[in-house]
């Protein structure tokens, strides 16, 4: 680089550094500094991301305070991570810059996990320099680039200079924030101390060692119905009915005489008396105070009428919950069970002790978890869950059907503090409904089956009538018998949907079964005339005067291998009858496994009698 170029670059760097200095000194609010910091630095150094991380050495944490440019999950402003194994820890340990992907600069031997995470996102190079205040590293300033080997030694030095500038601003901002916070706390504390007596909701009064009222705040005056002038100088017993007003002074006297605390330093429930004579439950705590060498006592009085009423209402509510026959379950804002009545114990099998403190997952099966989580979330957001059916799981592992609804529980100030639901066991009801539905489905299935069967029978009858018609048509007229037989064979082949039909007639004189017609290929290669004296499948079928089927020909002991190899699967012989008994048969062969229906066999056999 020429001297002129270096001078230009130095001038540009000086201008940007001056701008950075102006931004840093313009405000003690570091967020205002950060709003412009990244863009200005980017004019001086090329990068795709810049970040500032602060350290908490006591907690062993590092927090991202600022980031500009490419976002990195887990490394955005406010994100906290362990200091151990981080780039920040490496900078602290090396007491200097940590570099990756820089020309002429020694890289760190082992990159920490956070740096590796940046690299996975395509950020190939980075420089991390320490942020120091009072000679201690309080964090790091880091820049990243997608380009490899983009940085050089002067970039490391330049980023270090920027870090020194921003370190002072960060330290000043932290100091300013601490001072401002302390001042605010001090002012608030003084204001509270000044207003505590006059604005306290709790009644506060002071008495001397003789039980004489020395002062009372407006709340105490309003509580008892007296003005301050009416009670100051009177004995405190004026504020209590018998037997309390006599015993209270005795308790103080006993304490002063013996040193035994008794009621001093404790909280007791007593009965107070107003100016109009009405009484109310109150909570009283008495403590000794030393004022200018005098022994005095301060009393803090609370009207607990509402609490007593709440106690009564709570006992009534508990009695209702305990007596309801349906399970009532309540959870707190952390989704942990706080109410588990006896009905819940009976239904789910868990005792109250086992259930309290557990989450709703205790009784939720895995398949219902997404729905239940959504319903609980809805209730904890202040919305009511309408009643709907779902499933729960008992301690024994049984999954049961329940109907449940839920409502949010609101606190004293309208905030949601939990949710409550009533569960109703509908397992038996659903079982009955399922049984009824299954019975109805079975009935409908049988009805459909019967209808289908009737339709099949009707279709079969139609097919049979068509076959009869075609066979009758084939047998009619003066045509030669051989031709008629061929037509009949073709009709049988068509209606049985088979590959081969062979028609044989009895030759009584020679004791033979002669082939008179075929339709389709001949699988078995049988001779045209078969002797009845031989014991073949066809002869046996003829002698039995029945129709015989072989569903799987390949399994027959005397199966012909050449027939099997040509694809023969099933054969059937159908006996034909004349006026004097059996006079022939029909052989059927198929390349598929089938069994001819008996109705088909009878029709074909009957109709071929008409020869």
SSE blueprint and pairings:
Blueprint: H1 3-25, H2 30-42, E1 49-56, E2 61-69, E3 80-82, H3 87-94, E4 98-100, H4 113-120, E5 125-133, E6 136-145, H5 153-199, E7 203-207, E8 213-216, H6 218-224, H7 228-231, H8 244-258, E9 267-273, E10 279-291, E11 294-303, H9 305-323, E12 328-332, E13 337-340, H10 342-348, H11 352-355, H12 369-380, E14 385-393, E15 399-410, E16 416-425, H13 427-475, H14 481-496, E17 500-507, E18 512-519, E19 529-531, H15 537-544, E20 548-550, H16 561-565, E21 570-578, E22 581-590, H17 598-607
Antiparallel strand pairs: 1-2, 1-6, 2-3, 4-5, 5-6, 7-8, 7-11, 9-10, 10-11, 12-13, 12-16, 14-15, 15-16, 17-18, 17-22, 18-19, 20-21, 21-22
Largest sheet: 6 strands, antiparallel
Structural category = alpha+beta
User: Do you know the CATH topology of the largest domain?
Assistant: Beta-Lactamase
- Which strand order spans the largest sheet, edge to edge or round the barrel? 3-2-1-6-5-4
Number of helical regions: 17
Characterization of the model:
This protein has helices at 3-25, 30-42, 87-94, 113-120, 153-199, 218-224, 228-231, 244-258, 305-323, 342-348, 352-355, 369-380, 427-475, 481-496, 537-544, 561-565, 598-607; strands spanning 49-56, 61-69, 80-82, 98-100, 125-133, 136-145, 203-207, 213-216, 267-273, 279-291, 294-303, 328-332, 337-340, 385-393, 399-410, 416-425, 500-507, 512-519, 529-531, 548-550, 570-578, 581-590. The protein has 611 residues and is an alpha+beta fold. It folds into four domains: 3-177, 2-Layer Sandwich (Beta-Lactamase); 203-303, Beta-Lactamase, CATH 3.30.450.20; 329-423, Beta-Lactamase, CATH 3.30.450; 463-610, 2-Layer Sandwich (Beta-Lactamase). Strand 12 and strand 13 (337-340) form a beta hairpin. The termini are far apart.
């Amino acid at each position: 680089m020429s001297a002129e170029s270096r001078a230009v670059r130095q001038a540009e760097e000086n201008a940007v550094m001056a701008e950075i200095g102006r931004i840093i000194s313009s405000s003690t609010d570091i967020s205002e500094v950060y709003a412009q910091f990244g863009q200005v630095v980017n004019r001086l150094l090329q990068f795709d991301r810049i970040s500032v991380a602060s350290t908490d050495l006591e907690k062993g944490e590092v927090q991202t305070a600022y980031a500009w440019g490419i976002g990195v999950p887990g490394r955005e402003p406010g994100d906290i991570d362990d200091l151990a194994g981080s780039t920040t820890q490496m900078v602290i340990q090396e007491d200097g810059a940590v570099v990756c992907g820089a020309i002429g600069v020694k890289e760190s031997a082992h990159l920490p996990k956070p740096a590796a995470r940046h690299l996975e996102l395509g950020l190939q190079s980075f420089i991390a320099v320490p942020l120091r205040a009072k000679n201690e590293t309080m964090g790091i300033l880091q820049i990243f680039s997608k380009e490899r080997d983009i940085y050089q030694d002067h970039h490391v030095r330049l980023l270090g200079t920027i870090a020194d500038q921003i370190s002072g601003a960060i330290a000043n901002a932290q100091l300013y924030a601490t001072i401002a916070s302390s001042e605010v706390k001090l002012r608030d504390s003084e204001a509270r101390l000044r207003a505590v007596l006059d604005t306290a909701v709790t009644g506060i009064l002071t008495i001397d060692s003789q039980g004489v009222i020395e002062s009372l705040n407006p709340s105490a005056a309003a509580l008892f119905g007296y003005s301050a002038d009416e009670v100051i100088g009177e004995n405190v017993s004026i504020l209590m009915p018998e037997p309390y007003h006599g015993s209270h002074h005795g308790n103080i006297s006993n304490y002063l005489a013996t040193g035994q605390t008794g009621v001093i330093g404790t909280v007791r429930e007593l009965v107070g008396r107003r100016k109009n004579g009405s009484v109310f439950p109150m909570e009283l705590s008495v403590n000794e105070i030393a004022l200018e060498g005098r022994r005095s006592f301060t009393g803090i009085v609370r009207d607990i009428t509402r609490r007593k009423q709440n106690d009564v209402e709570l006992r009534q509510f508990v009695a209702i919950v305990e007596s309801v026959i349906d399970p009532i379950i309540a959870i707190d804002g952390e989704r942990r069970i706080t109410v588990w009545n006896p009905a819940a114990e009976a239904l789910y099998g868990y005792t109250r002790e086992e259930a309290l403190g557990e989450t709703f997952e205790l009784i939720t099966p895995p398949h219902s978890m997404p729905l239940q989580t959504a319903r609980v979330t809805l209730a904890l957001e202040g919305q009511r869950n309408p009643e709907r059916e779902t499933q729960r799981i008992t301690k024994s592992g049984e999954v049961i059907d329940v109907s449940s609804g839920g409502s949010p529980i609101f606190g004293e100030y309208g905030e949601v503090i939990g949710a409550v639901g009533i569960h109703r066991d509908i397992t038996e009801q659903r079982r009955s409904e399922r049984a009824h539905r299954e019975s109805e489905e079975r009935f409908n299935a049988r009805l459909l089956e019967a209808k289908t069967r009737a339709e099949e029978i009707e279709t079969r009858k139609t097919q049979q009538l068509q076959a009869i018609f075609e066979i009758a048509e084939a047998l009619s007229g003066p045509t030669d018998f051989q031709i008629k037989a061929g037509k009949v064979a073709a009709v049988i082949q068509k209606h049985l949907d088979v590959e081969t039909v062979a028609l044989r007639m009895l030759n009584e004189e020679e004791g033979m079964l002669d082939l008179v017609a075929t339709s389709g290929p001949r699988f078995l290669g049988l001779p045209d005339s078969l002797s009845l004296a031989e014991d073949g499948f066809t002869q046996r079928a003829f002698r039995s005067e029945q129709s015989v089927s072989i569903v799987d020909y390949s399994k027959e002991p005397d199966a012909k291998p050449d027939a099997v190899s040509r694809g023969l699967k099933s054969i059937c012989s159908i006996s034909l009858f004349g006026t004097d008994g059996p006079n022939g048969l029909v052989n059927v062969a198929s390349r598929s496994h089938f069994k001819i229906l008996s109705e088909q066999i009878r029709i074909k056999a009957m109709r071929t009698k008409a020869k």
